[in-house]
Amino acid sequence: MFNVFVNKHLIWSRTTELIHLHLMRLKGVSYFLLCVFIHIFLVAQEVTEKAPGENIKSVQFSGIKKKEAFPLIELGEELILDFDDLNADEADYYYRVKYYNHDWTPSQLFSNEYIEGYDNLRIDNYNTSFNTLQSYTHYQLKLPNENINFKISGNYILEIYSSEDHLVFSRRFCIFEPLASIQTAVYRPQNMDRFMSHQSIHFTITLNKGIIRNPKENLHVLIIQNRQWGQNIKGLSPQYHKGQTLEYRYEFPSQFEGGNEYLFFDTKDLRVSTPNISFINRADLYESYLNIDVPRFYSNYTYSPDINGGFEIRNIMRPGDPNSEADYSYVYFSLAADYKLNEDEIFIYGGFNNYNFSDENKMYYNPALEVYEGILILKQGFYNYKYVVKQNNSININALSGSHSLTENDYLILAYYRFIGGQYDALIGFGSANSFELQN
Known about the structure:
The chain is mainly beta. The chain has helices spanning about 5-20, 30-45, 110-115, 215-220, 320-325, and strands spanning about 55-65, 70-75, 80-85, 95-100, 115, 120, 125-130, 135-145, 150, 155-160, 165-175, 180-185, 200-205, 220-225, 230-235, 240, 245-250, 255, 265, 275-280, 285-290, 310-315, 330-335, 345-350, 365, 370-380, 380-390, 395, 410-415, 425-435.
C-alpha cells in the first residue's frame, strides 16, 4: 500500500489537475493569481516525520559524538542511523536526503545545491541477529559517506524507502556552521501563577563576524525541550540590541511547562528483575512486567535522574555487539486508575517510537483490575517513558505526571539566518542549557 504521505500527494495532485482543467476557460490575471495561490498553498506546508510500521524498531539517529542523542552535527561531522527490521528477511532499504527551510517547508534548492554526490542508494551495512529469541535484521547507515556529502547547513530529512519505493520512515536532522555564539540560561518565571510549574528560557545571539541585518525578517529561532520536535517555541523576535548581540529575555512567550522526571526501566539482563520490573517470564519471547505506576499529578516533586525521554540499547546477558545480539521482550505497562476516562486516551510516551502516538502505544482500560494496560515489544536496554493524555485531538504530556519548575530538562536553541542574497536558511549555531542550573 502507498503510505499516507504518498496518498496525500496524489490527492493534492489530482485536485490541482481538476482545478486547472476547470479554469482553462478563464483568462487574464485572475487565472494567473489563482494558480500562484494554489502552488504556494500546496508547496508551503510544513513537513512531518513519517512513523515506521510495526516491523521497524529501535530507530536511533544522532551524531557520532552523541550530542544529547539528537541528530545535530557540525558541517563535516558524521551522523549514524541504526534500526531493526523484525521481519528478519534482509530486505533492501534505500535512503534519500531532502533539504528544507527553517520552518520545515520545502526549499526551492536543487539537490546538487545542498549535496555533493548522489543518494537513492541501498543501505549495504546490515547484520542478522545472533542467538536471540526474536529474529531481526539490524541496519546501519553513516552520513556523509563515500557517495554523499553535505554542502550547506540547515534542515534536512533522511527518508528510508523499501525496494518497492514505498516510504518506510523518515527522520529530521540538522547541520550547523559555528558562525554565531548563543548563550542560554533557564530561569524560574516571575509571574507567581507559573512560578512552581514552568521554566523560562533566556538567551543571546552574537554573530561571530559582522552583524545580523534585519533580524525580524532574516533571523529565525527555535527552542526545543528535551530533544522533542513536538515540544518547541518559535517565532520570537529579539527584544534588545546590544552592539552585535541580540537579547531574548521574554517572560511569557519563552516558557515551557517543567513537567516531571521520566519513569524508567532497564532490561539489559532478561534473566533477573531490576528496579521497576516486577518479574520476567520466558515464553516464545521474554516478557517483562513493570511495577504498577500511579498518576503523579497531585504528588510533590521528587528528583530522579533520567535521560529526558530517551533510550539506550545495551545487553549484559552475553558478550558481543548489542546491535545484533540484544534480544527483544514484551514489556507490560500498567497505570492505576479507579475510573475510565470519558473521551480521553492514554499513551505510553518516549523516544523508543520518536514520541509518536499510535494504536501500538495506546493503553486500554481493564475494569477488573482498575488499571490502564499497554504492551510494547522493545529491545534490551535502558528506557525512559511517561504516560500522556490525548484530549480532543490535543496532547497534554503532563496531565498525569504533573508539572514542576524544579524538574531537570534539556533545552536546545537553533538559530537560522538567511544572509543577504541567500537562497536558504543557514543554521548558524546552537545553544544548550539544562534546568539543573535553574536561576531565580
